[in-house]
């Protein structure tokens, strides 16, 4: 696989609301939003019975890139790839990603992408990292995710992490923080930090 063959992975709903946006090339935030909008409009105006790939939008590099997509229920999964990439290979990759999501969430739906964003990103990282394909075998990906889930459960889960972090900070023996700092004519009042821990 060539370096950075995948430029971006965009998932948006039928109304163009982004549900997963992952760029593997640096773009300012504003340009990223424009690329999502442009990609949505390019994909939306296509008929369901025509092929699932087209030239990239002007913002992401035009003819040098291809948009390869699949439409499932309320979601479009769009991979923006180097024009030398195999369309069928990427369509298969999208299928693997969606089937993996489906297996991990038991019938994935748009709400899963909204409420379990961290898990969705983790799954995506098992498939693609840095714009390169890591794994295309769904069973391998699912095994990795299940192993991660077991690890989280044995550690008390991710939800317990913030509480553990707070209690660790409380138990640290920090030197007393001065309440007032005088620098020449300036008098700075230091807030009482104990209220935050």
Biggest sheet strand order reads 2-1-5-4-3
Question: What CATH first level would be assigned?
Answer: Alpha Beta
Number of helical regions: 6
CATH architecture level-2 label: 2-Layer Sandwich
How many separate domains make up the residues? Answer: 1
The biggest beta sheet reads: 5 strands, antiparallel
**Strand-and-helix sequence, N→C?**
EEHEEEHHHEEHHEE
Determine the mean pLDDT.
Answer: 81
* CATH fold node name: Beta-Lactamase
Assign an overall shape. globular
Uncertain stretches of 5 or more adjacent residues? none
Measured on Cα atoms, how large is the radius of gyration?
23 Å
Detailed description of the structure:
The termini are far apart. The chain has a single domain, classed as 2-Layer Sandwich (Beta-Lactamase), CATH 3.30.450. Helix 2 crosses helix 4, helix 2 runs parallel beside helix 5 and helix 4 crosses helix 5. The model has no long low-confidence stretch (mean pLDDT 81). The strands form 3 sheets. A 5-stranded antiparallel beta sheet has the order 2-1-5-4-3, with helices on both faces. The protein is an alpha+beta fold and 197 residues long. Helix content is 40%, strand content 23%. It is built from 6 helices and 9 strands.
């Amino acid at each position: 696989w060539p370096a950075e063959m995948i430029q971006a992975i965009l998932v948006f709903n039928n109304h163009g609301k982004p549900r997963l946006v992952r760029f593997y090339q640096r773009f300012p935030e504003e340009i990223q939003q424009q690329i999502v909008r442009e990609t949505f409009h390019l994909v939306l105006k296509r008929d369901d019975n025509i092929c699932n790939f087209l030239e990239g939008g002007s913002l992401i590099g035009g003819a040098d890139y291809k948009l390869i997509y699949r439409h499932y229920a309320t979601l479009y999964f769009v991979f923006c790839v180097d024009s030398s990439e195999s369309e069928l290979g990427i369509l298969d990759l999208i299928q693997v990603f969606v089937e993996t999501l489906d297996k991990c969430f038991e019938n994935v739906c748009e709400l899963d992408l909204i409420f379990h964003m961290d898990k969705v990103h983790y799954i995506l990282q098992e498939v693609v990292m840095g714009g390169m394909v890591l794994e295309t075998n769904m069973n391998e990906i699912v095994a990795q995710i299940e192993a991660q889930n077991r690890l989280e459960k044995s550690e008390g889960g991710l939800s317990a992490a913030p509480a553990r972090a707070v209690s660790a900070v409380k138990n640290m023996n920090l030197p007393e923080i001065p309440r007032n700092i005088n620098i020449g004519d300036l008098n700075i009042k230091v807030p009482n930090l104990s209220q935050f821990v």
